[in-house]
């Protein structure tokens, strides 16, 4: 007799919201544990549970009767969860091993290097002199917090000695919490989402070009024409995911350099650069994430149009945002209060020509009062 799936999500943001919505299309009605009942996921789900994953009692209560658990982000402490999910009999995906490996930028980078996946040179050290030596050897650096960094938060550019000294003088600086990478000169940034099922079946979403604004993803356009290098990279990524037995959707972000594609970061979850798939692909990344845990064989990802563009709507004030009378694109609104730098929603555009779609996106952005 088939076991009824009782799914749960840790987190209540927009990624959780879209995971909830796409789960419903599969006949699943997951619970999600959230710190606020005004979070995006709570606006679309009757199964919101108010609580803190760091609270042992609240977490234990949330897990009761669940047999499938996933995360909307990598920011949940895997070591803590290992202790408190020891008696959980259900399936956790991605595994806590994968979560712990990839949520720490140090162990993430070590795993990339070990598996011969191209990434920028780096060190992790407790000594300021080591950082200064690396600066003299390599030139400008990037300091990244090992945990909980995103959208530029926890990232410091160290282009000259003054910026280096200012960083060292930062209050409560703990070098153990950082890695230091060589600052990479690149032509543009790119990304791809990859899905791997519980049985090891791997499928790729299309490669995309990404444009950043104030360290946040602003525009995604695709598909990128698949090159011989991308095909080789796909094989390397598949081997890597098989080796760590990853289950679910995972996002890879790249720098396009003169030497080729170099991995900047890996996010063990559905990813902002894959939101286009809700309109551009026959299977979106959120549905695919659930299917990774439910099916051995995953459906093929095929494009529904020749080109697509995804525009992020990013707040610039604290004023309420009126939703304009829109005529182009498909709006996904997260229901968040406005603030500077906050992702409030996104719009997907599909069509025949990327250049024309980018023009549409910028024209539509003009009518938004963010």
Protein model, in words:
This protein has 11 helices and 18 strands. The protein has 370 residues and is an alpha+beta fold. The strands form 3 sheets. Strands 10, 11, 12, 13, 14, 15, 16, 17 and 18 form a 9-stranded antiparallel β-sheet that branches.
Strand residue percentage: 25-35%
Helix and strand content put the structural class at alpha+beta
Rough outline = globular
Q: Mind summarizing the main beta sheet?
A: 9 strands, antiparallel
The stretches of 5 or more residues where confidence is low (pLDDT under 50) are none
Rg on CA atoms, Å: 21 Å
Topology pattern, helix = H, strand = E: EHEEHEHEHHEHEEHEEEEEHEEHHEEEH
Termini separation comes to 52 Å
Give helix % range: 25-40%
Total helices: the number is 11
- In oligomeric terms, what are we looking at? single chain
Annotation, overall tally of beta strands: 18
Mean pLDDT reading: 94
